[in-house]
Amino acid sequence: MTIHLTIENVDKYELVDKDISGLPYLKVLRKDDAVPLLYDSQFNLSEPLTRKKHQSDSLPVVTQLMRKLTEAKYSVRQNESNLQEYVKIKQAAAFSLYETGNPNSEDSMFKTGTNIITKVLEIKTKKPCVKLCNKKVIVIVNIENENTEPIDNIHILFHGLQKKSTEYTTKIYEETSYSPYWREKDFHSIKSNEECSIIGIIEMKELKYSVSKIEFEAVLSYMKQGKSYVLPLDDVSISAIDTMGENFDILQSSEEDKYKVLAILATSEKTDINLRHIDHKENPINILEAISNHLDIERLGNLKNVLIHKKSLNHILYGLTLIFLEETNLSACVTVQIYSRSPAQVLAFIHYLYDGVPYRIMATLPNHIVTSKSEDLSHLDSEKIDNPQIDYTSYATTIINQSKIMLQYLDECIVKMNENTSPEVQSKIGHQIQILSMGLPEFLKFRNKVLQEASNGIQGLKLKEKIDTLSVDMMDES
């Protein structure tokens, strides 16, 4: 026996004799190669014979197109195979994760009830509270993390028994001792021995065409030390008929005032405004009391600095909430946080303020600068903010260095274009400069040099008021 040829990385091979000529050719498919290799009886590499040649097949264009067609067919088959394998692996992984978080055996702890599960997972929960606020359905769940480690990536998951898809949002708030008494957590994380309120917000359009009850299996999903956990909550049911009841609206219900504020914060948009009483020196007033008395916006329970409009369900200001940040409201200018369903409510409130309150009160945004034309109203002027002046002198060197880098690179591009004998490139000389004529790697190096020079220049900028301090520090170090 003699070894005529050695082929590496072979996936499969076969002998093909379509013309029954008695001289078959060897067809070899290598791994990660879309084009099969064809060898004749002398083991010489030949072009693939996909079909009998006609007169037009001798054209180079047709030959190249047939080759591309063969490559495309092979690539499609390989991609379909890889896709099917990926789908199977993904389904198996999802099912494995589901079994890990939702065991279905008879002795599973999910059969023991939510009270025992919370003790095992060391998370204390209360029954979800389902209410309506600002035309949105909210589900409030109070939880306390009794673990020694924090829990992260916390979300309420709703799985409808009849309606499979539901739009909702999860927010986490922690209680504070200052206005507005709740603060939304930037990260969905709860520290050890910390108590927070998790709110699931569902749009009312989800109930628009549903008369019967919508039931949800609610669970709390979180991560602890890199592992995922699922804590089942009590089932939640929402009915369109229930929403017709007056007690379903949290503003009209008997819930605690702090939870009413929590629901408003979670379902509203915040707008900050400043209210200035023009005639405060001659006739000082309490702006909070004036708004409350003349616009029928009442205080919310024992919260002295929170006003809310909840008398008329059909009024445009219904649900509008004002939170005064100052402890005393006898000052000429107070800052107010307005929580509304939309900017239209804020605009309506300002119109009612000007028309309904018999005092000269001016509403402005915090970034508006107010300056009086006379000394009598100078106490209403905005606080002057000294904008720090930046010394841009040192950045001039950066601009010069960047210009040198650009000129040098453009000169190199022109030289490269002159060396190119292509008529298309030669026709552009003197009119255009191809910035990629040096090649992509060189262009990336050029770009990085320009960006690095800009970064160095920005870091070199100093505030005028700090120049003396910095110079003294450097003298001390030397």
Quick synopsis:
Helix 6 runs antiparallel to helix 8 (440-459). It is flat and about 110 Å long. It is built from 9 helices and 23 strands.
Fold and architecture overview:
It is a single chain. 30% of the residues lie in helices and 26% in strands. By secondary structure, it is α+β, with helices and mostly antiparallel strands. It has three domains: 114-248, Immunoglobulin-like; 268-380, Cell Division Protein Zipa, Chain: A; 390-477, no CATH class.
Spell out the key features of this protein.
478 residues; alpha+beta; Immunoglobulin-like; Cell Division Protein Zipa, Chain: A; 3 domains; six-stranded antiparallel sheet; 23 strands; 30% helix; disordered C terminus
Write the layout of secondary structure elements.
Layout: E1 10-16, E2 25-30, E3 37-39, E4 45-46, H1 60-101, H2 114-121, E5 123-125, E6 129-133, E7 136-145, E8 151-160, E9 168-175, E10 182-184, E11 189-190, E12 195-203, E13 214-224, E14 227-232, E15 236-238, H3 257-267, E16 269-277, H4 287-294, E17 298-300, E18 303-308, E19 321-324, E20 333-340, H5 343-356, E21 361-364, E22 390-391, H6 393-419, H7 423-426, H8 440-459, E23 462-463, H9 467-477
Antiparallel strand pairs: 1-2, 2-3, 3-4, 5-7, 6-7, 7-12, 8-11, 8-13, 9-10, 9-12, 13-14, 13-15, 16-20, 16-21, 17-18, 18-19, 19-20, 22-23
Helix pairs in contact: 6-8
